Every structure is written in structure tokens, then in C-alpha cells.
Amino acid sequence: MLPRLARMVGALAVDREVPLAAKVFLGAAALYLASPVDLIPDFLPVIGVLDDLLLAAIVVDGVLNHVDRRLVLRYWPGTPDSLEVAGVVAGRLAAWVPSRVKARIFGGARRP
After folding, report:
1. Out of 25, 96, 108, 109, which residue is the most buried by the measure of CB atoms under 10 Å away?
2. 60 occurs within a structural domain
3. Residue 81 clears pLDDT 90, i.e. is over it
């Protein structure tokens, strides 16, 4: 899933229709995920990847709820069904982040 997420994030970050605030967050998230420095070191078994997993979930949940779905589907390399499954899982993992915070980060109102 992470390679798909990386391709989608990269494509969305350069798309003119994506709000600037979302592009900044997507770029910052990509840098953090690629960085060897983490809040929880990756060498710790299981919990070492927790911060990366939660950030990826916030990115997917935020993108699916605040960026036009047709744009996301344009860049998602899988099927629409696989994107929906990823969105459900990400939504559950990112549920602790308030919707208003995600709306502010991604620069728009929640998509219906």
C-alpha cells in the first residue's frame, strides 16, 4: 500500500486543482515518511512503524475527505474498490484527529 500511497501523494502534490494547504501537508508528510528520523525509532519492534502508519492513515483519510474524489481516483493506481478499502482502514486509524483539524490541514470542507 505504501508504494501506491507514495505515487498518489506525489501526483496530487503537483496537481493544480489540489489546494495549496493540502500540497504543503502532502510534501511535509512525504519528507517525514522518507526521513530516517522518527518520533518512534523504526528499529523498535512493531511500535517502531506506528508513527509512520498513523501519518499515512491521516494522509489517506484527509485526502479522501478533503480532495475531490475524481482527482484521487485519477492518480490511484489500484481499483476504486481498493481505494475505498484503504479509506475505511485509514478513517478508523485517523479517527482521533478532529475533522476540523483535517479540514484546516487539507484546505477545504469535508467532501460528501
Report:
1. 25
2. yes
3. yes
As to burial, measured by CB atoms within 10 angstroms (0-12 exposed, 13-18 middle, 19+ buried), residue 72 is buried
Q: Is the pLDDT of residue 89 over 90?
A: yes
Backbone angles phi and psi of 32, in degrees to 5: -65, -45
Our count of domains for the chain comes to 1
Q: Does residue 21 contact residue 107 with C-beta atoms inside 8 Å?
A: yes
Task: Please give the model's pTM, rounded to 2 decimal places.
Answer: 0.76
- Express as a percent the part of the chain with pLDDT over 90: 12
